[in-house]
Amino acid sequence: MRFFRWLAGFVFLAALIIFIFAVLKVDAQAKLMLFLLICFLLSLIRVLKGPTPADRSVATDIFGILVIGFCAILAVYTNKDWYMDIAIAWGLQSFIGVLALAKFLEGRNFDD
Amino acid sequence: MIEILMLFFIVVGIAFDLFGCLGLIRMPDIYNRLQTSTKCVTLGTCSILFAVFVKFGFTAAGVKALLCILFLLLTAPVSAHALARGTHRSGVKLWEKSVCDKYAEDRKV
């Protein structure tokens, strides 16, 4: 059973990588962005099937950090500097949200 | 040359992000997931932001990227520590093959 779960995950990742590198006919920058989208997909899987609320909070934290990286890649490849403003604002908002989630997990109220 | 350096930093960053999210899927326990994913993803995103600084130089966007790196390096450990503390206090059990739990021993005394 454990072996089959390993095999399923390996086949899934290998199929995605082969699909991105060999089948798709787009330029190299779009391929790099697709790799980052795979990261988004993995963290969303953890949000969907996490057993406890703490797992979902961790995956939300990781999602917020990944959005900053995605904004940075967009800033590189479109030559617009206002993407960095979006990245900084998203980082601040994600940090405060994660702190509120941690306080909620601990069982305290927000004004303690 | 600058193009090659920028591409190198972006590829390193995306590799770290991918491995961090793979750890988020693969690890058996919430504490292991937290440890793996937070470190790898923070380092990967900082590398991508440094690629932005390499491309733009000391203009507005580059300095904003450096500021974002500083902010991320300051806040990611704080949020990870707060999440781990809140999880442990809310009563989530460790993995059954874990060896020791120093925080529970400290709180018992």
What would a concise description of this structure say?
Helix content of chain A is 85%, strand content 0%. Chain A has 112 residues and is mainly α.
Structural account:
The complex is a heterodimer of chains A (112) and B (109). Chain A is mainly alpha-helical and 112 residues long. Chain A contains four helices and no strands. Chain B is mostly helical. Chain B has one domain: Helix Hairpins, CATH 1.10.287. In chain B, helix 1 (2-26) packs antiparallel against helix 2 (30-56) and helix 2 (30-56) packs antiparallel against helix 3. Chain B is elongated and about 55 Å long. The mean pLDDT of chain B is 89. Chains A and B meet through helix 2, helix 3 and helix 4 of A and helix 1, helix 2 and helix 3 of B.
Distance between the termini of chain B: 59 Å
The CATH architecture classification of chain B is: Orthogonal Bundle
- What's the assembly state of these chains? heterodimer
Residue share in helix of chain A: over 70%
Number of domains of chain A: 1
**How many helices of chain A?**
4
What are the secondary-structure elements of chain A, in order, as H or E? Answer: HHHH
SSE-based structural type of chain B: mainly alpha
Which residues of chain A form runs of ≥5 with pLDDT under 50? none
What structural class is derived from the secondary structure elements of chain A?
A: mainly alpha
Q: CA-to-CA gap between the ends of chain A?
A: 47 Å
What's the average pLDDT of chain A?
A: 86
Mean pLDDT of chain B: 89
What share of residues are in beta strands of chain B? under 5%
Largest sheet of chain B: none
Count the beta strands of chain A.
0
Helix content of chain B: over 70%
